[in-house]
Structure formats: structure tokens, C-alpha cells
Amino acid sequence: MRVFNLTIGSLVDENYIYARALSYLGVDFYDHHDRKLLEICEEMNITKDQVLKAFYLFDQSHRFSFKELNKLPLQIVIEYLKHAHQQFIKDKLPYIARLIARHQDLDDLKLIFPEFVDEFVNHIYEEEDTLFHYLDTLIKIDKGQHANPLAALWKHRSMRLKDVFEDHQEVDELAGIRNLAEEYQDQDILARVILQEIKAFDREMWYHAEIENKILFPKAIELEGQIWKRLTKLTRLN
Ligand SMILES: [Fe+2]
Ligand SMILES: [Fe+2]
Fold first, then answer.
1. Where are the domains of the chain?
2. How far, in Å, CA of 200 to CA of 193, rounded?
3. Ligand nearest to the Cα of 164, by number
4. Phi, psi of 143 (to 5 degrees)
5. Around 6, how many Cα atoms within 13 Å sit in the side-chain half-sphere?
6. What is the pTM of this model?
7. Residue 77 Cα to ligand 2 middle (Å)
8. Which three-class secondary structure state does DSSP give residue 60?
9. Ligand 1 centre from 120 Cα, in Å?
10. What burial letters (b/e) apply to 197-214, b meaning 16+ CB within 10 Å?
11. What's the CA-to-centroid distance between 136 and ligand 2, angstroms?
């Protein structure tokens, strides 16, 4: 098969995602850049089948379309976003950080990337601990799972959903890195893969934020409105 006769370098140049798949198989592409994939597989006891499966797996984009997500209930959208958060923190960012650390130069990026990761991870935790937590409460109230909805809402009295939404539309944490990475266009293969990974991460973050801004928040604001309407009606009746 054609891919096995290619050098690791040209393979990765063809599709940077293969670098990630190779790393998953235990092959650091930057150490074997001129060797053929076939040789590496033989040396490391990796079967062709394993390679093809890994390439296939990493090449697929397992994501719902915007339309599909919009049709899902709020609770599932939250689960989907939480899953994406986990993937960012446990998988994608550590991989990029590892690549950056392996490069002999890129000093600016070495300095600014960890700062970005810190900020980004904070954003995620805050989002889950405050916003998602509040939305869980709304969903439970909506399902009648709270004996005392007002008491449950009281715990979140500092939450201003519309303000959080406004702030959320402004964040662009990757801006500095995006500009810096553009300079790596003509450098060695490791730098080029880093650039591709950063670009892909940028696209994914944009898409993630779009889902939050255009699906999650509108659904949440609507649910919040419905719940308050119902509760005020009830308190008037009492
Ligand atoms: Fe998020
Ligand atoms: Fe977010």
C-alpha cells in the first residue's frame, strides 16, 4: 500500500493528522523523518492494520453538525461540550505542548503557550463550575426534580446568564498564538506540524464557541425564562 512506502516526513507533510496518529502508536515523527513507514513498523512491531486503523480513527471528525446539535435537548448539548472540554485538556493541548517542547527553537511560543493553556483551562473549569452547574439546576427544575425550586435557584443568585453570555462572545484566547504561529510556515517539519495543529485547534475552538454562543446560551436563556414564568404563576396562586 502506498502510504507504507512513503517517508514519515512526506506522510506528515501530506496530512499533519498522521503525525498525531503516529504519536498514538508510539512513533515520534520528528525522530524518524527520513525513514519509510514500512521500516519503522517492522522495527517497532506495529502491524499495517494498526497503522491503518489509527490513521482512519484520527482522520475522522467525530462531530455533530450545527443543525444536528441545535435539535438536541440542552442536557445533551452540555454533555457534548463537556466531552469536548475533556478532549482539549487531556488530549489535544498536551500533544501540542509536547511538540513545542521538542523543538530546538520557537522560544516565544514556548513562553506563551503554557500561559494560554492556563487561561484556557481556567475558562473551561469556570464554565463547568458556574454556568453548566446552573444549567443543570434549571434542567432539574424543569423536570420537576427539585422539591423546592426557589431554594435551588437561590444558590445561584449571583448568576446573570445574559451578562455571562455577553462576556462569552468577546473571548479570543488564542489571538496571540495565532499570529505567532503564522511565522512557522517555511520552517522545518516539526514547526510546520505545530502550525497545522494550532490552526486546527483554532478552528475547533471557534466552532466550540459558536456552539456555546448560538445553541447553548439561547436554549438556556429560553429555559430560564420559562421556569421563571412558571414559578411566578405558582407563587401568585399561593
Ligand atoms: Fe466550552
Ligand atoms: Fe466557552
1. 2-59, 66-237
2. 10
3. 2
4. -85, 0
5. 13
6. 0.80
7. 13
8. coil
9. 9
10. bbeebbebbeebbebbee
11. 16
